[in-house]
Amino acid sequence: MIKGLNKVEVITFFVEDLAATRAFYEEILGLEVVYSDDASAVVKLENLMINILVVANADTLVQPRPVAAPEAGTRQLFTFEVSDAKAVYEELKAHGVTILNGPVDRPWGRRTVSFADPAGNVLEIAQVL
How many other C-beta atoms can be found within 10 angstroms of the C-beta atom of residue 61? Predict the structure, then answer.
Protein backbone atom coordinates (compact mmCIF):
# COMPACT_ATOMS: atom_id res chain seq x y z
CA MET A 1 0.00 0.00 0.00
CA ILE A 2 1.23 3.51 -0.81
CA LYS A 3 0.94 5.70 2.26
CA GLY A 4 0.04 9.37 2.13
CA LEU A 5 -2.54 9.28 -0.66
CA ASN A 6 -5.40 10.31 1.61
CA LYS A 7 -5.84 14.03 1.02
CA VAL A 8 -7.13 15.52 -2.23
CA GLU A 9 -5.67 18.99 -2.73
CA VAL A 10 -6.76 19.95 -6.27
CA ILE A 11 -9.27 18.69 -8.81
CA THR A 12 -8.63 19.84 -12.38
CA PHE A 13 -11.45 20.37 -14.87
CA PHE A 14 -10.58 20.69 -18.56
CA VAL A 15 -12.71 23.40 -20.18
CA GLU A 16 -13.22 24.99 -23.57
CA ASP A 17 -14.42 28.39 -22.27
CA LEU A 18 -12.29 29.55 -19.36
CA ALA A 19 -14.16 32.84 -18.85
CA ALA A 20 -17.62 31.25 -18.67
CA THR A 21 -16.50 28.41 -16.41
CA ARG A 22 -14.55 30.75 -14.12
CA ALA A 23 -17.60 33.03 -13.85
CA PHE A 24 -19.75 30.02 -12.91
CA TYR A 25 -17.51 29.05 -9.99
CA GLU A 26 -16.74 32.59 -8.92
CA GLU A 27 -20.04 34.42 -9.44
CA ILE A 28 -22.68 31.69 -9.09
CA LEU A 29 -21.06 29.33 -6.58
CA GLY A 30 -19.27 32.19 -4.80
CA LEU A 31 -15.83 30.58 -4.69
CA GLU A 32 -12.69 32.66 -4.33
CA VAL A 33 -10.19 32.69 -7.19
CA VAL A 34 -6.75 32.16 -5.63
CA TYR A 35 -4.75 32.00 -8.87
CA SER A 36 -5.37 32.80 -12.52
CA ASP A 37 -3.54 33.28 -15.79
CA ASP A 38 -4.46 33.06 -19.48
CA ALA A 39 -4.91 29.29 -19.32
CA SER A 40 -6.38 28.60 -15.89
CA ALA A 41 -8.14 29.77 -12.79
CA VAL A 42 -7.97 28.07 -9.40
CA VAL A 43 -10.90 28.43 -7.01
CA LYS A 44 -10.75 27.50 -3.34
CA LEU A 45 -13.27 25.51 -1.40
CA GLU A 46 -13.02 24.92 2.32
CA ASN A 47 -11.08 21.69 1.94
CA LEU A 48 -9.67 21.65 -1.62
CA MET A 49 -9.17 23.64 -4.81
CA ILE A 50 -10.56 23.30 -8.34
CA ASN A 51 -8.19 24.12 -11.18
CA ILE A 52 -10.14 25.26 -14.25
CA LEU A 53 -7.75 24.59 -17.14
CA VAL A 54 -8.15 25.33 -20.84
CA VAL A 55 -8.25 22.07 -22.83
CA ALA A 56 -5.35 23.16 -25.05
CA ASN A 57 -3.10 23.10 -21.97
CA ALA A 58 -4.39 19.78 -20.61
CA ASP A 59 -2.65 17.28 -22.89
CA THR A 60 0.66 17.36 -21.06
CA LEU A 61 -1.06 16.48 -17.78
CA VAL A 62 -2.70 13.28 -19.05
CA GLN A 63 -0.37 12.06 -21.85
CA PRO A 64 -0.48 9.57 -23.44
CA ARG A 65 -4.24 9.53 -22.80
CA PRO A 66 -6.33 11.98 -24.83
CA VAL A 67 -8.50 14.66 -23.29
CA ALA A 68 -12.12 13.59 -23.81
CA ALA A 69 -14.58 15.90 -25.50
CA PRO A 70 -17.55 17.16 -23.45
CA GLU A 71 -19.86 15.09 -25.67
CA ALA A 72 -18.10 11.87 -24.60
CA GLY A 73 -20.24 11.69 -21.44
CA THR A 74 -19.84 12.22 -17.73
CA ARG A 75 -16.69 10.81 -16.20
CA GLN A 76 -16.94 12.15 -12.66
CA LEU A 77 -19.34 13.57 -10.09
CA PHE A 78 -18.34 15.95 -7.34
CA THR A 79 -20.72 16.46 -4.44
CA PHE A 80 -21.15 19.52 -2.24
CA GLU A 81 -22.83 18.93 1.12
CA VAL A 82 -25.60 21.47 1.80
CA SER A 83 -28.08 21.91 4.62
CA ASP A 84 -31.12 22.61 2.38
CA ALA A 85 -31.01 21.05 -1.10
CA LYS A 86 -34.34 22.53 -2.20
CA ALA A 87 -33.22 26.07 -1.34
CA VAL A 88 -29.90 25.67 -3.16
CA TYR A 89 -31.75 24.09 -6.11
CA GLU A 90 -33.92 27.22 -6.36
CA GLU A 91 -30.82 29.44 -6.27
CA LEU A 92 -29.16 27.38 -9.02
CA LYS A 93 -32.29 27.66 -11.17
CA ALA A 94 -32.47 31.41 -10.55
CA HIS A 95 -28.92 31.73 -11.92
CA GLY A 96 -29.81 29.76 -15.06
CA VAL A 97 -27.68 26.76 -14.11
CA THR A 98 -28.34 23.60 -16.15
CA ILE A 99 -30.14 21.21 -13.78
CA LEU A 100 -29.74 17.56 -14.76
CA ASN A 101 -31.95 15.94 -12.12
CA GLY A 102 -33.47 16.47 -8.70
CA PRO A 103 -34.25 17.25 -6.08
CA VAL A 104 -34.44 13.49 -5.47
CA ASP A 105 -34.58 11.74 -2.10
CA ARG A 106 -32.11 8.86 -2.44
CA PRO A 107 -32.35 5.53 -0.61
CA TRP A 108 -28.96 6.19 1.01
CA GLY A 109 -30.36 9.11 3.00
CA ARG A 110 -29.53 12.12 0.86
CA ARG A 111 -31.61 14.62 -1.11
CA THR A 112 -29.61 15.36 -4.25
CA VAL A 113 -29.60 17.69 -7.23
CA SER A 114 -27.19 17.19 -10.14
CA PHE A 115 -26.19 20.10 -12.36
CA ALA A 116 -23.59 21.01 -14.97
CA ASP A 117 -21.04 23.79 -15.22
CA PRO A 118 -20.55 25.56 -18.59
CA ALA A 119 -17.88 23.01 -19.59
CA GLY A 120 -20.23 20.06 -18.99
CA ASN A 121 -18.65 18.90 -15.72
CA VAL A 122 -21.33 17.38 -13.49
CA LEU A 123 -21.65 18.56 -9.91
CA GLU A 124 -24.12 17.58 -7.23
CA ILE A 125 -25.48 19.01 -4.02
CA ALA A 126 -26.55 16.62 -1.28
CA GLN A 127 -28.50 17.21 1.89
CA VAL A 128 -28.34 14.65 4.70
CA LEU A 129 -31.92 13.57 5.45
Answer: 12
